[in-house]
Design goal:
Protein name: Alkanesulfonates ABC transporter ATP-binding protein / Sulfonate ABC transporter, ATP-binding subunit SsuB
Keywords: ATP-binding, Nucleotide-binding, Transport
Number of strands: 10
Oligomer: single chain
Strand content: 15-25%
Shape: globular
Number of domains: 2
Largest sheet: 6 strands, mixed
Bound molecules: adenosine-5'-triphosphate, magnesium ion
Number of helices: 7
GO molecular function: ATP binding; ATP hydrolysis activity
InterPro entries: AAA+_ATPase, ABC_transporter-like_ATP-bd, ABC_transporter-like_CS, ABC_transporter_ATP-bind, P-loop_NTPase
CATH class of the largest domain: Alpha Beta
Length: about 250
């Protein structure tokens, strides 16, 4: 049975308390994500996208409203949710292998070695166990971060502009790779991006957020078969519609 409310966010608001003034970052977000769905979130800088992902990851527990996964309210970070940030956040003094092992919670040495090798293979980095982060390109480091986020076999992968800092060609390659991982692992994906084309290429659904305080402005179902043709008429049509919505505030 399709689980339409695998992630259920209801009337979520978030205020950052400051000494002199409070910042309302999110205002009344209601959003459900189905199991296995690939959801993309786009929105202007500062509209609360990272705030939303941090709340979903359990790193930020101070909010109003309700956020649950599989019917259970989120009360902190959990192994069923992995997160990838815009910067890779690898520890520079640890090898690739040790960076991933650092995140791994259970298993014997042999099991861990197997899991690490398997996940490096999944992101196309077999054999890079002994490299240090400064010996990797930006795209490779980000793929290690993805392997690290997946190694505990999460149900949900939260991706906060994971390819934002990468060059266009690397970004295209990693988009293909994240789709392949999604198809293989059946992970529910929630990905923030500022790149509308990326959102249309990847997403089953694209959610457009308003400027701060962030609300859900509009949702678009992307009903295009995969692999998607970026230059196709249908693709461009969806891209244009989202683009129009995205920039409506600015025009
Ligand atoms: N720790 C914090 N303390 C106070 N205000 C914060 C904090 N983190 C974020 N904010 C504010 O909350 C709002 C939303 O920030 P957030 O980082 O979620 O935006 P974003 O959509 O991820 O932006 P970007 O696209 O630039 O990454 C911003 O106005 C920001 O200044
Ligand atoms: Mg952000």
């Amino acid at each position: 049975m399709k689980d339409n409310n695998h992630v259920a966010i209801t009337n979520l608001s978030k205020t950052y308390k400051k000494q002199n003034s409070d910042v309302l970052a999110l205002n009344g977000i209601t959003l459900n994500v189905s199991r296995n769905e690939f959801l993309c979130i786009v929105g202007a800088s500062g509209c609360g996208k990272s705030t939303l992902l941090r709340i979903l990851s359990g790193l930020d527990k101070e909010y109003n409203g309700s956020v649950s996964v599989g019917g259970t309210k989120i009360s902190g970070p959990g192994l069923e949710r992995g997160i990838v940030f815009q910067e890779h956040r690898l520890l520079p003094w640890l090898t690739v292998r040790d960076n991933i092992e650092f995140a791994l919670q259970t298993g014997t040495q042999a099991e861990k070695a197997n899991l690490i090798a398997g996940h490096l293979k999944l992101v196309g980095l077999a054999g890079f166990e002994k490299a240090y982060p400064n010996q990797l390109s930006g795209g490779m480091a980000q793929r290690v971060a993805i392997a690290r986020a997946l190694v505990n076999r999460p149900d949900i992968l939260l991706l906060d502009e994971p390819f934002g800092a990468l060059d266009a060609l690397t970004r295209l390659k990693l988009q293909q790779q994240i789709l392949a991982i999604w198809e293989k692992e059946k992970t529910t994906m929630i990905m923030v991006t500022h790149d509308i084309e990326e959102a249309v290429f990847l997403g089953d659904r694209v959610v457009v957020m308003s400027e701060r305080p962030g609300t859900i402005k509009k949702e678009f179902e992307v009903d295009l078969l995969r692999p998607r043709n970026r230059s196709g008429v249908a693709f461009q049509q969806v891209r244009k519609e989202i683009y129009r919505e995205f920039y409506a505030d600015l025009m």
